[in-house]
Amino acid sequence: MSVQPGSGQGHAIDTLFSEERRYAPPPDFARQANAQPDIYSKSFDEFWTDEAQQRVSWFEPFEKLYEWKLPYAKFFLGGKLNICYNCVDRHVEAGAGNKVAYYWEGEPLGERRVVTFEQLQKDVVKLANGLKRLGVKKGTPVGVYMGMVPELAVAMLACARLGAPHNVVFGGFSADSLSGRLNDMECEVLITQDESWRRGKTFPLKAVANEALASAPSVKHCVVFGRTGNPVEMKAGRDVWWDELVTPASDDPASCPCEPLDSEDLLYLLYSSGTTAKPKAIAHTTGGYLVGVATTHHYIFDVKPDSIYWCAADIGWVTGHSYIVYGPLCNQTTGVIYEGTPDYPDRDRWWDIIERYKVDILYTSPTAIRTHMKWGPEHAQKHDLSSLRLLGSVGEPINPEAWIWYREHIGGGKAPVVDTWWQTETGAIMISALPGITTTKPGSATRPFPGVEAAVYNNAGEEVGPGGAGYLVLKKPWPSMLRGFYRDPERYQQTYWSRFPGVYFAGDGARVDEDGYFWLLGRVDDVINVSAHRISTIEIESALVDHPAVAEAAVCGRADATTGQAIVAFVTLKGGAEGSPEMMTTLRDHVAKKIGAIARPANIVFTPELPKTRSGKIMRRLLRDVAEHRPLGDTTTLADAGVVDEIASRGRELLAKGEEE
Length: 661
Ligand code: PRX
Description:
By secondary structure, the protein is of the alpha/beta class. It contains 19 helices and 29 strands.
């Protein structure tokens, strides 16, 4: 049984874990940082008005900062702009055409491309002209299902140029997921590619798309980018090769001017796949979204004109939309795009890329960091990573040990680490350190970004004081917030606005400490209730990962006749080691010592892998099914469905033993 928000008495969540390490910004970093301490002294209105004017070029200025009709916000009312103009054209006009927009590294060794802003502009204009020939215009919904190639960014920008909202579907999803999303938005065009590369093998994007299109009648045209060149089935009258579409098209920007859009025109839908069941169609609009992503990118990542910035996420997730494509390009940043997996052909591939391009800013997820931890630091040690001066993390709470490992082994013990909390819904980072200002604490996302009003509430909807824990809420609208679910206002209202009147409830648990720092505790559905103590999964997981033998851990609750719920831990050991009864005792004692006997796991299941979504989040929902001997729920969003069967069989055995004890 999972704990429902609002059940129980007193504290919403009990917090037990205490982390004492502190890292002040290095003085030379602090001196040159984009964000200086006075950034926190501006008012909400002043901050966002100034940023909107400074970071974005408007065809027509906005008249009003925002309008708030609960639960819908509008920002920069009356403003007209085009995101493609901001991300591409204006940089070329300003003489930066020769600056590199993307260094692209294909997965097969030696396949590289350098895309300048001028080249990007030509590619975008040609594709936009091609799409126009297919009937795409302002308001036409376009689906995109591609791998990590520069053309994916080109496709998004071409849509933005025309004012055609896009719907990017991660290029690893199934035909059903793809057709579901295409049908929901009634896409008229799909842009895809023949195949993509993944861990040395090809993934059949076009074949999957063909299957999806068989049940997506709204799609009239399918544009196919040729990546691997292997033969694929093309349907006459519907399908057209990217090259054939763009070759005759003009690359002159004047031949396809950027459509002036209203601030509140739809930019894209992105279906959050996550750990919940039915995907939510999250809508982002133009002006507020661009201001939000460009501003956060500038200050949090401290990007400079000569930065080589690498966000190692996939463009198919919101992290890629906001921090590979729109934020960095708006700020005229040189980025890296890598096509494949971190272990192809070897486990040092990422570090080779960082050394080659002299990357100074790396942004990745706790899951990726823990994977590198599991593989060991020797792969990074083979390379010169001294160009790195800032590290970022996103996607899940980061365990203090993973944070420290990242700082020490990747950041050379000097690069500040910014743990950034946000969601597909928030569009941009909401809680994060500012690297030249904030003294960081491993495991804490630190403080709300300027112009963001975050708080933690208890069950009764009162703000908890320092040291308290409960539900993370956002009290004021922000420019890049979602503008609802596409065609589903009731679910939007119900999901975020029904728990506490007037504030956005993010679904996450958090603690605020005596310095006002936020510590994210995971999804509230994952909280475990042991003898009336509500314990967050992340704290127990962090205590487990703190043990030197442990690479990764995930915990969940199972029903227990005595304590209400009992803690079950799923643990992956470093270096592929097998578990033993002794290790089980050691780890149970370790958790008891770190956070108290109440948190001692009742059972530990050793497993070589944990079940994760495609974006790297641990699916505790499935672990709960295993722990409670239930049939497994929906596994379609799992990255590797085999993992959960393996865990289920190990779990059944060990849990049966544990329960007999
Ligand atoms: O639970 C939080 C977790 O990821 C959720 C949002 O997931 P998604 O919409 O897929 O977006 C991921 C990329 C922004 C949040 O509700 N989450 C994200 N970042 C953090 C985090 N949890 C703790 N710390 C973070 N830095």
